[in-house]
C-alpha cells in the first residue's frame, strides 16, 4: 500500500482519442506507455519515478484488460533484466528507476542487454536525480548510455514532448535493435501540464504469446564468439540505423532564424531554461520565438554528425549548453568540428560552470557572457551593464535562518532506535557506525548525528565488512527493510555470515519501502491481494546462517532497544549479531488508521486517542529530551512567566501519541515532565463510573489541601 | 514585451504544510479564469520535514502555448509565499524577493528547526531579523500569523495563505474568484472559506508579536491567618524599588507555592537585604536577583513535582489540551524514574549521606528504587501516592536535598555580595549564572558542574577590568552545548591569554 492512493490517476490512464490529460510529467509517461502498445512494465521505486510504479500498482484491472504485465521489481537490476523479454520476442517493454543510483545497480543487465540487442522496443525510463534537492550523488546517466551503446533521449520538458519521446523511443529501439534510455529530470517528472491523449493500444504480441511460442537464437546470447560480433554490429548496423531514424523523424529540433552569427546547442531538457534566459535578455518572447538559432538535441546520444556540422558551419560561434560533468556532448561536438575542419568557436564549460545545476541565474549569466563576447550587437545595454537591484548582503539573516534538512516524521518508529543507539554510545563509548539508504539515513543529522558512511542501497553492513577485528569494539551497521530485500540479504547479511563478521547489524523494519512512498515489500505486514507479503525478515536472516538474531516488535520500547543493542555489542557469541527492529511507518499507519478510527468513534465504539504533554512548570528548559528526539511535534515554547529565561518543551497538536518522548525520558532518566493523556471516546459504563468516583476522590483531596494553604489564581 | 504577461509565483514551505494543496488552488484559479498555468514541485525535498519550493508560472491564454520555466530564478519572482517565518528569511537569502517587484506573503508563526531546539539555553532564531529583512527586500509585504488564523477556523494554513494572496491583489483575480475555487474543495470547503476570509481581512503585522512576559497579578486565596501574612508580604514588596517589584512579586509567589508563607518571608528578607546594599542606580541587579533567587529557592524535587502533578488547574489544562468532552473518559500516565539520589535527597542529611558515602549501600538502594515507574495520576492509587508525596512539604526542611541547596545558595549569594560594592557588573553576571542550573538527574549534574566551573575559575578574571564580560561570555558558552565543551574552551582562552601576558611581563 503506497502512501498515496492513485485511484484518480488510474482513471486518467483510461482517457482516449480527443481527451486531454492533465497532470504530472511522470504520469504522462505512464499513459504514453499504454498508448504505444507496451507489453510489460517493471521498475524499482524511488524519486522521481515512484508515481509511475505506484499508479501501475493501482491499475491492476486496466493492465489486465489490456494484457500488459506489470512487475514491481526487487531491484533495478531485476528491472533491467526483465527487458530480456524483448530480446527474441517482438514485445515492447519498459522499465523505470532513479538514476544514477539505479543505473549503477542495473548496469550488469543493461550491458548484456545492449550487447545482444533487442527485437521488441526496449525503453529504460530513468528519473535523472541531479542538482538542487537531489538525494543522491551528482553523476550523469550519459556515460552509461555511451559505454553500453544505449540511445539516450532527453526531450524538452513539457508533456507533449515527453509523450512523443516515449513513442519514438520504442520505434527507434526497434529500428536499430538497441535499447533506448529516456532521461527525465526531476522537475520534468513533477511538472504539471496537459497533452492530448490517444486510445490505449493492447500489445500486438503479449507475454502470454511469447510463453506459448518460445524462441531462441544463439547469436543473440552474450558469449564468444557472438559477443565479438555484437560489438561490430553496434557500430556497423545499429548506429547508422539509429541516426537514420533520428534524422528522418526529426527528433532533434531547430528553433529561431535559419541563419545567424551565433547559435546555441542544448540538451532537450535544458530548453525551457535557455528560453527563459533569452527572454530575460530580450532575445526571445514567452512563446518561444527566438532571435538566436537554436539546435535542440532531444537525442543526446548518438549525435547526428550532419546536423551538428550543418548547424555550426555558417556560425562564428556556438554555445553548447550541457548540464553536469564530464562534458560528454561538448567534447563530442568539438571532435566533430575538428574532424570536419570547421572553424567555429565552441563555447560551453567555462562560460557555464563545470559542475552543478544550470539554474535560472546561472543560465542567464552564462548566456549573457557568451552573447556579449560573441555577438555584442545582440546584447542590450542592460546585458553589458546589468542594472539590476543589487542583492544586499544580509549577514544578520545568514546568522538567523536555520538550516532545515529533512528529518524523521512525527511519531516515526525509527527515532527511538537512534535514541537508544545514542544512549548505548553514552554508556559504552563511540562505535564505528555504517549507515544505509532510506529514511533511517536521517540519523546522520542532528540531533542524532549517528553514522559515518553510506555506500549504497542495502550495503550498510557490507560497508562495515573490512572493520572486523577479534576482541575489538564492534561495528554497528544499519540497513532498512527496503535495502534488505533489494540487496542487503545477500550482499550484507549473507556476506557477514559467510565471513564470520562479528559486527552488529540493525535492520530497521517499518513494514514498507517507506522513503520511496510506502510501497509493499516481501516483509510488509499488510495483506496485498496481488503480491506475496508477510515473509519475516528474521526467518530470512536465520536462513542465511546467522545464529544471534533478536526481533523487537515495538521499537518505541527504548529501554529494550538499548538493552538488546548493548547485549549485541558485548555478547561472547561469535559471528554476526542481527537485530530486527520492527514498527510500522507512522505516516502510513496514520493514513491507514485515521479513517478507521474516525469511523469507529462515529459508530460509538470505545476508542482511546493518546497524546503526550509536558508540564511546563516542571520542565526546566534544558531540552535534553529534544537532543534525543528531533520529533517535529516536540518543540519549544516561551512562557509568559518573567522568572523563566529559556523556552520550555512543548508538545503541539500534531502529536500522534507514539510514546517516544515518554520512553526516552524514562530510559535516559531525563525528567518527570512528560505525561500521556488518553482521551477515551465512548467510554464503557465501568470506565464512566470509575472516572466519576476518581474525580470526586481527587476533588475531595484537592479541596482538603486548598483549605490549609494559599492558592493562586491567574 | 510579451514576457510581462507572465506571472511568476513561488511558495516556500516546510514538508507536511500542504504547499501542494495551495499550489493546486492557484493553478485552478488561473486556468478557470482564462489563463494557462504550469507548476512544479520537487516532492522528494519535502521528505519529510525539510524546506521545499513549489513554483507556478501563469500567462493569459493565447493561440501559442507559453514556454514556462521549471524553477524560480534569482530576482525573477513576482509573488513569494512563505508558509513559515524562517522560510520568509530563506526566500530572501536565496534571492527570490526583489525590492522592485516582489509581493512577499509570509506566515509569522514558527516551526522550530532541530538546531533551534537542541540548544540547552534559548536557541530560537530572532523573528525581528526576518521582519526587518522582509521590509527591506520586498516591494510589498504581508506578514501575519496565517497558521493561527487557519487553526481558529478549523482549517489549514493553505486556506489562509490563499486568502492572503487574494488580499495582496498581486494576481489579476477578485476574491470571489478565489472563493469559487475553494467551494470546489469538497467537505472541508466551508472551513477553508472561513480561514480564507479571515486572512483576507487580516491587517498585516508590522513587527513580531511578543509574548507578554508580565507576571499576572497573583490573586491569593486561603485561610485568613495565611492571607494576613501574605498581605503583609505584599506591603513589604511595595517598599522595594519600583523596577524590581514585579519580579519580586512573581518570585514571592513561586516560593510560597513551593513551600509556604514563611518560606516566602525568607525569600523576601534576602531580597530586602540586598536592596539595602545594591547601589541606587542599579535596580537591574536587584531585579535579576529577585528572579534568580526565587528559581534557586524553588528547586525541583520529588515533592514539588508531585504537588504540581496533583493540582486542580493542571487537570483542567490537560482536559482542554486533549479537547475532552464531558462524555469522554480520560487516562493520565506519568513517566517517573526516581533514582537512589532522589531518595537520599528526601532523607535526613545524616542518613542520606550514610547511603551516599558507601558505594555498596548506595548501589543496594539504587537497585531497589531505580526503575521507570508509570503512574496513573488520575487513578485512586496513583493520585494518592502523588498527593502524599506532594504533602511532604513540612518535611522538606529536614532533608539532605534542602541542606545541599541551602549551602549552594549561600555560597552563591556570598560570592555576589563580595563583588557588589567593587564591581556591581560582575555581581550582576554572577546572579545571572543561576540560569545555568536546570534539569533533573544527570542533566542537573551537568548543569551544576557548568555553574561550578565558572565559579571555580572566577579567580582568573576577578581582578581584570572586564571580569563581568568574561563571566557573561562563559555563561553564553555554557548554554551552547550539553557538556560544557564550549565553556571549557572559553575558560582555556582566558588561561592562555593570561599566561602569555605574564610571560611577556617577565621578559
Automatic annotation (TrEMBL), chain A:
Q: Which InterPro entries match?
A: 4Fe4S_Fe-S-bd (IPR017896), HACL1-like (IPR045025), IorA (IPR017721), THDP-binding (IPR029061), TPP_enzyme_TPP-bd (IPR011766)
A Pfam family this chain is assigned to? TPP_enzyme_C
| Record domain 4Fe-4S ferredoxin-type: where | 610-642
Q: Which UniProt keywords apply?
A: Metal-binding
| Annotated spans, Disordered | 379-404
* Kinase in keyword set: no
What is the protein named?
Indolepyruvate ferredoxin oxidoreductase subunit alpha
Species of origin reads Maritalea mediterranea
Top-level taxonomy: Bacteria, Pseudomonadati, Pseudomonadota, Alphaproteobacteria, Hyphomicrobiales
From TrEMBL, chain B:
The molecule here is called Indolepyruvate oxidoreductase subunit beta family protein
InterPro entries assigned to the protein according to its UniProt record, in alphabetical order: DUF6537, IorB_Oxidoreductase, Pyrv/ketoisovalerate_OxRed_cat, Pyrv_flavodox_OxRed_cen
Q: Which residues form the DUF6537 domain?
A: 245-455
Q: Does the keyword Oxidoreductase apply?
A: yes
Q: Tell me the keywords, alphabetical order.
A: Oxidoreductase
Which residue intervals define the domain Pyruvate/ketoisovalerate oxidoreductase catalytic in the entry?
A: 15-200
Amino acid at each position: 500500500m503506497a502512501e498515496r492512493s492513485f485511484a484518480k490517476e488510474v482513471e486518467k490512464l483510461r482517457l482516449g482519442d480527443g481527451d486531454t490529460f492533465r497532470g504530472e510529467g511522470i504520469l504522462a509517461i505512464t499513459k504514453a506507455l499504454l498508448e504505444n502498445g507496451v507489453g510489460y512494465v517493471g521498475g524499482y521505486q524511488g524519486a522521481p519515478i515512484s508515481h509511475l510504479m505506484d499508479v501501475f500498482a493501482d491499475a491492476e484491472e486496466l493492465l489486465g484488460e489490456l494484457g500488459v504485465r506489470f512487475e514491481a521489481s526487487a531491484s533495478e537490476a531485476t528491472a533491467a533484466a526483465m527487458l530480456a523479454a524483448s530480446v527474441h520476442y517482438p514485445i515492447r517493454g519498459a522499465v523505470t528507476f532513479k538514476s544514477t543510483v539505479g543505473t549503477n545497480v542495473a548496469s550488469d543487465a543493461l550491458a548484456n542487454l545492449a550487447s545482444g540487442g533487442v527485437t521488441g522496443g526496449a525503453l529504460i525510463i530513468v528519473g535523472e536525480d541531479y542538482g538542487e534537492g537531489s538525494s543522491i550523488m551528482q553523476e550523469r546517466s550519459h556515460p552509461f548510455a555511451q559505454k553500453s551503446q544505449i540511445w539516450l533521449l532527453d526531450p524538452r520538458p513539457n508533456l507533449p514532448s515527453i509523450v512523443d519521446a516515449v513513442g519514438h523511443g520504442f520505434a527507434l529501439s526497434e529500428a536499430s535493435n538497441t535499447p533506448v534510455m529516456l532521461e527525465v529530470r526531476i522537475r520534468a517528472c513533477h511538472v504539471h501540464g496537459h497533452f492530448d491523449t490517444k486510445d490505449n493500444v493492447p500489445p500486438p504480441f503479449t507475454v502470454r504469446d511469447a510463453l506459448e511460442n518460445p524462441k531462441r537464437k544463439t547469436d543473440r546470447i552474450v558469449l564468444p564468439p557472438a559477443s565479438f560480433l555484437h560489438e561490430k554490429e553496434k557500430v556497423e548496423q545499429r548506429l547508422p540505423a539509429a541516426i537514420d531514424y533520428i534524422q528522418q523523424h526529426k527528433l532533434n529540433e531547430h528553433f529561431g532564424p535559419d541563419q545567424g552569427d551565433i547559435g546555441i546547442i542544448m540538451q532537450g531538457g535544458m530548453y525551457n531554461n535557455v528560453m527563459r534566459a533569452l527572454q530575460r535578455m530580450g532575445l526571445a518572447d514567452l512563446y518561444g520565438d527566438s532571435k538566436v538559432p537554436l539546435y535542440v538535441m532531444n537525442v543526446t546520444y548518438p549525435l547526428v554528425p550532419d546536423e551538428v556540422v550543418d548547424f555550426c558551419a555558417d556560425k562564428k560561434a556556438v554555445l553548447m549548453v550541457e548540464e553536469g560533468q564530464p562534458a560528454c556532448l561538448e567534447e563530442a561536438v568539438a571532435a566533430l568540428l575538428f574532424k570536419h575542419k570547421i572553424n567555429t568557436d565552441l563555447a560551453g564549460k567555462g562560460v557555464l560552470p563545470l559542475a552543478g545545476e544550470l539554474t535560472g541565474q546561472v543560465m542567464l549569466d552564462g548566456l549573457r557572457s557568451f552573447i556579449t563576447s560573441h555577438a555584442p550587437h545582440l546584447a542590450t545595454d542592460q546585458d553589458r551593464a546589468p542594472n539590476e537591484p543589487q542583492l544586499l548582503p544580509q549577514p544578520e539573516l545568514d546568522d538567523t535562518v536555520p538550516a532545515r534538512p529533512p528529518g524523521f516524521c512525527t511519531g516515526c518508529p525509527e527515532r527511538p532506535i537512534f535514541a537508544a543507539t545514542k544512549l548505548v554510545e553514552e554508556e559504552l563509548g563511540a562505535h564505528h557506525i555504517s549507515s544505509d539508504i532510506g529514511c533511517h539515513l536521517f540519523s546522520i543529522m542532528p540531533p542524532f548525528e549517528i553514522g559515518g558512511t553510506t555506500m549504497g542501497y542495502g550495503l550498510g553492513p557490507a560497508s562495515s565488512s573490512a572493520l572486523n577485528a577479534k576482541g575489538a569494539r564492534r561495528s554497528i551497521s544499519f540497513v532498512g527493510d527496503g535495502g534488505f530485500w533489494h540487496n542487503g540479504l545477500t550482499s550484507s547479511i549473507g556476506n557477514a555470515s559467510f565471513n564470520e563478521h562479528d559486527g552488529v547489524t540493525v535492520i530497521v523494519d517499518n513494514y514498507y519501502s517507506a522513503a520511496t512512498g510506502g510501497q509493499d515489500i516481501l516483509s510488509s505486514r499488510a495483506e496485498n491481494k496481488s503480491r506475496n507479503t508477510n515473509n519475516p525478515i528474521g526467518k530470512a536472516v536465520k536462513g542465511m546462517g546467522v545464529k544471534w538474531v533478536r526481533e523487537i516488535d515495538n521499537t518505541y520500547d527504548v529501554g529494550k532497544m538499548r538493552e538488546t543493542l548493548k547485549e549485541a555489542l558485548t555478547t561472547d557469541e561469535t559471528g554476526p549479531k542481527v537485530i530486527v527492529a520492527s514498527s510500522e511507518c507512522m505516516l502510513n499507519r496514520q493514513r491507514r488508521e485515521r479513517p478507521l478510527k474516525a469511523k469507529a468513534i462515529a459508530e460509538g465504539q470505545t476508542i482511546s486517542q493518546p497524546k503526550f504533554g509536558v508540564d511546563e512548570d516542571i520542565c526546566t528548559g534544558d531540552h535534553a529530551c529534544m537532543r534525543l528526539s528531533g520529533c517535529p511535534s516536540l518543540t519549544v515554547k516561551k512562557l509568559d512567566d518573567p522568572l523563566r529565561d529559556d523556552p520550555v518543551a512543548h508538545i503541539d497538536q500534531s502529536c500522534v501519541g507514539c510514546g517516544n518522548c515518554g520512553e526516552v525520558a524514562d530510559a535516559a532518566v531525563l525528567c518527570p515532565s512528560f505525561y500521556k493523556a488518553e482521551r477515551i471516546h465512548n467510554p464503557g459504563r465501568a470506565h464512566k463510573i470509575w472516572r466519576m468516583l476518581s474525580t470526586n476522590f481527587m476533588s475531595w483531596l484537592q479541596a482538603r489541601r486548598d483549605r490549609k494553604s494559599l492558592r493562586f489564581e491567574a | 514585451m510579451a514576457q510581462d504577461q507572465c506571472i511568476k509565483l513561488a511558495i516556500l514551505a516546510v514538508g507536511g504544510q500542504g504547499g501542494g494543496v495551495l499550489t493546486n488552488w492557484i493553478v485552478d484559479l488561473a486556468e478557470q479564469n482564462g489563463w494557462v498555468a504550469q507548476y512544479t514541485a520537487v516532492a522528494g525535498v519535502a521528505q519529510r520535514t525539510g524546506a521545499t519550493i513549489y513554483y507556478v508560472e501563469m500567462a493569459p491564454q493565447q493561440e501559442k502555448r507559453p514556454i514556462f520555466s521549471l524553477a524560480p530564478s534569482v530576482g525573477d519572482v513576482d509573488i513569494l509565499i512563505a508558509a513559515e517565518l524562517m522560510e520568509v528569511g530563506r526566500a530572501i537569502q536565496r534571492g527570490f524577493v526583489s525590492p522592485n517587484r516582489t509581493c512577499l506573503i509570509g506566515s509569522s508563526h514558527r516551526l522550530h528547526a532541530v538546531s533551534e531546539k537542541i540548544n540547552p539555553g534559548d536557541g530560537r532564531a530572532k523573528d525581528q531579523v526576518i521582519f526587518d529583512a522582509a521590509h527591506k527586500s520586498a516591494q510589498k509585504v504581508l506578514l501575519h500569523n496565517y497558521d493561527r488564523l487557519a487553526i481558529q477556523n478549523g482549517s489549514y494554513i493553505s486556506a489562509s495563505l490563499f486568502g492572503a494572496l487574494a488580499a495582496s491583489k498581486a494576481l489579476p483575480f477578485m476574491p470571489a474568484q478565489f472563493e469559487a475555487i475553494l467551494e470546489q474543495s469538497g467537505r472541508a470547503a466551508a472551513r477553508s472559506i472561513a480561514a480564507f476570509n479571515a486572512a483576507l481581512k487580516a491587517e498585516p503585522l508590522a513587527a513580531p508579536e511578543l509574548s507578554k512576559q508580565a507576571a499576572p497579578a497573583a490573586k491569593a486565596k486561603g485561610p485568613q491567618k495565611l492571607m494576613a501574612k501574605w498581605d503583609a508580604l505584599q506591603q513589604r514588596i511595595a517598599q522595594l524599588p519600583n523596577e524590581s517589584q514585579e519580579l519580586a512579586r512573581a518570585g514571592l509567589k513561586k516560593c510560597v507555592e513551593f513551600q509556604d508563607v514563611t518560606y516566602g518571608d525568607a525569600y523576601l528578607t534576602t531580597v530586602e537585604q540586598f536592596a539595602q546594599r545594591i547601589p541606587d542606580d542599579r535596580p537591574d541587579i536587584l531585579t535579576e536577583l529577585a528572579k534568580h533567587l526565587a528559581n534557586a529557592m524553588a528547586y525541583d524535587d520529588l515533592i514539588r513535582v508531585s504537588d504540581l502533578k496533583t493540582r486542580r488547574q493542571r487537570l483542567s489544562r490537560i482536559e482542554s489540551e486533549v479537547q475532552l468532552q464531558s462524555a469522554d473518559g480520560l487516562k493520565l500516565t506519568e513517566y517517573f524514574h526516581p533514582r537512589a539520589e532522589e531518595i537520599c535527597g528526601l532523607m535526613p542529611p545524616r542518613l542520606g549521606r550514610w547511603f551516599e558515602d558507601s558505594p555498596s549501600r548506595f548501589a543496594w538502594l539504587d537497585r531497589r528504587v531505580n526503575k521507570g515507574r508509570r503512574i496513573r495520576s488520575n487513578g485512586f492509587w496513583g493520585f494518592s501516592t502523588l498527593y502524599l508525596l506532594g504533602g511532604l512539604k513540612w518535611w522538606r526542611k529536614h532533608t539532605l536535598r534542602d541542606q545541599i541547596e541551602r549551602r549552594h545558595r549561600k555560597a552563591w549569594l556570598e560570592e555576589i555580595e563580595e563583588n557588589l560594592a567593587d564591581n556591581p557588573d560582575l555581581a550582576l553576571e554572577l546572579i545571572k549564572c543561576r540560569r545555568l542550573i536546570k534539569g533533573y538527574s544527570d542533566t542537573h549534574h551537568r548543569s551544576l558542574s557548568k555553574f561550578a566551573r565558572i565559579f571555580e575559575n572566577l579567580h582568573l578574571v576577578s581582578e581584570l577590568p572586564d571580569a563581568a564580560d568574561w563571566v557573561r561570555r562563559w555563561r553564553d558558552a555554557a548554554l551552547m552545548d550539553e557538556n560544557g565543551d564550549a565553556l571549557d574552551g572559553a575558560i582555556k582562552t582566558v588561561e592562555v591569554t593570561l599566561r602569555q601576558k605574564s610571560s611577556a611581563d617577565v621578559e
